Amino acid sequence: MNLKFQFLIGAALTVPFVVCAEPIPDQFKQGGFAIGCQSYTFNRFTLFEAIDKTAEAGGKVIEFATGQKLSKEEPTVTWGHNASDEVIAKVQAKLKQHGIKAVNYGVVGGKDEVEWRKIFEFAKKLGLYGITTEDTGKLDIIEPLVKEFDIRVGIHDHPRQPNNPNYRVWDPYYILEVTKNRDPRIGACADTGHWQTSGLDPVYCIRVLKGRVISSHLKDKTDFGPAGHDVPYGTGVGRIGKVLDELKAQGFEGNISIEYEYNWEHSVPEVKQCVDFVRQHGR
What we know:
There is one protein chain. Helix 2 packs across helix 10 (268-281) and helix 8 (202-208) packs parallel to helix 9. The strands form two sheets. Strands 1-2-3-4-5-6-7-10 form an eight-stranded parallel barrel, surrounded by six helices. It is globular and about 45 Å long. By secondary structure, it is of the alpha/beta class. It has helices at residues 3-7, 47-57, 85-98, 113-126, 139-149, 172-179, 192-197, 202-208, 240-249, 268-281, and strands at 34-38, 61-64, 101-105, 130-133, 152-156, 186-191, 213-218, 220-221, 230-231, 255-258. Strand 8 and strand 9 (230-231) form a beta hairpin. It has a single domain, classed as TIM Barrel (Alpha-Beta Barrel), CATH 3.20.20.
């Protein structure tokens, strides 16, 4: 299949810190996948509410977005890699309350090696599987930190920008180019919805990236191109079942984050349908 052809389709404070990154335990997987939410799905709410809603939808893992307010009780506290140990402990306690594991953080970038080290230290404290970024220009900084901390990095894709040819991460072939000869723990965070917005077939893109898929922001949409919007898995054009089959065939071990960018205030039932689809597909 010619990729260019695809373009024409349309786009408890006492909880101790985890001190090492590790594979995602099977107890947090459903249907063979670590399926949960990107907290950005609930960006109209606080982080604590996002954790509550992830649990309500049946997710067992969560990927943290940056910049979310911590809680209704502490609305001036912002979550991210500059959080204090006290705030991190509060978040760990909230996760423990629901039996949810934090697995990823992003999309995030660092201005220099100092900030990127802070990002990795934050991820290490939380025992994260990976970090999500679009900061491809700093891979020479990121790669040594991947090796030092044993934390994976997935390069995220937003939709292509026709008026900005310098924005290239939407193209899976570009991701292969920049990760070639890099540590195998550096690869793609496959955002299938943004691929659909770019007019790309998600199944084909996953195949292109074989061996380099670190994590996924899994989406199903009503159509290809910018007019499409998120819908529960299996009800759109994204061939989500085939995406899951391909990931399984590749031995994918990362997290799948539901980043549901529609019906923002009342999306929990639709997110639950996504979780249920993955659980049932894997039976």
